[in-house]
Amino acid sequence: MNIKNYINAAMMALVLTGVSSCGKKLELDPKQNIDASTAIKTDSDVDQLTIGAYAVLEDPALYGTMLIMLPELYATDKSASAKYLGWVGSFDTPREVANKKISTINGDITRVWVQSYRAINLANTILASMGVVKDPALQKSLKGEALFIRALLQFELVRLYGQQWTGGPAGANTQPGVPIVTKASSDDAIASQKYKRNTVAEVYNASIQDLKDAITLLPADNPGRANQYAAMSILARVYLQQGDYANALTLANQVISSTKFSLNSDVTTVFRTKNTAESIWEIQQNDQNNAGNANDGLATFYANLDGGLGRADFFVSAGFKATFDPNDSRGNTLIYTGSGAKPGNLACGKYLAYGQNIPIVRLSELYLVRAECNIRLGSVVGDTPAKDLAQVRGRTGAAPIPVPTLNNIINERVFELFGEGFAVHDLKRLNLPTYGGIPFNDKTMVFPVPQREINVNSNLAQNDGYN
């Protein structure tokens, strides 16, 4: 897809979502091959291009499905059906991820790579268009949004296609990561650009710098789009993955201390109501524009409801449900017995409507980051780990834990965030095996570089175990 088509896609996203920009819509004749330098002329044009980048993030290959579902399946496997979540659907590509037998031509793995770099190329195009934007405040915001999107996807890619960061903040991490792409291209196929893989350290450093820059540029309030606190939260997530607990703590505390967000009293609210006080950043969807079509969308994979909503491909094990406190509303309402496609199977109740937004960063995550880092560092920044845990756990009906240990906090992350795309990343950063016992640094615990990319770019080295 060239830049012209990106702009057309951005315009379609505007029509479908009803999102308005600051000025007139970009008018393009789809029959003409219009160069980006000709098409992008006004503040409104760049704003619409940015909206198009968000539309790519919503794609089923990214946060519409795969960046949330695949990390959950990767944490499990066939022998883990009594311990966590699992796959009972008919599609082979997710089953390969769950079973750790991933083909280099796996369609889901390929889509994640390709669509991530499409969004990154869009971000780079936005950054290259800053000279067009005349409104200083808009220019600042759009630049911050583009940096945020680029950093976010670089981070997602390196966690999936590169081995886990090791050695703490000072670790060398020279193992292969993914290509860092910072220049806009009229051809979004990264393979055709002949990039090499950067090291894991280089990718992390690039993402960190982009997020630091984004924090200084993004507004505190930016409805439906990335804001300053979303960038701070993702940067805290990056630092936590590195084991840089001091920096993760500082950022988590800043987000919490801003008092701009508050936990919902009902644990289901953030998954039933759009843009609640608990949500720091969400992927925006509606009934007309969402990732849930014939074979895609989180509700399609997760839901198991009467009336044909959901295929119930993704299930929750009885063994996992049993680990919740009997009075924990998360185990009693966000895990339910299905009555739809697979009656009797337990299902995750977080994604039950095609048009509902997808929360990517929630305040509860930041409370748990602060609690974990304070325990690890022996500090009391912001509040005690006990009080932070009580903030998250206290609204669930579960028994209080007056003096929490590190394991209590880690377990609480599982209870709070299950099904949302954290599982394998947490296991890796904690150096823990999958629920089926596969070591975090096993060769099968990184995705293969898609074969179609290697076929056209000999500079891309394949991961060990996939040659």
From TrEMBL:
SusD-like N-terminal domain residues: 28-240
GO cellular component, as recorded: cell outer membrane
Domain RagB/SusD: 355-429
Record's subcellular location: Cell outer membrane
UniProt key word Acetylation: no
Assigned protein family: Belongs to the SusD family.
Protein name: SusD-like starch-binding protein associating with outer membrane
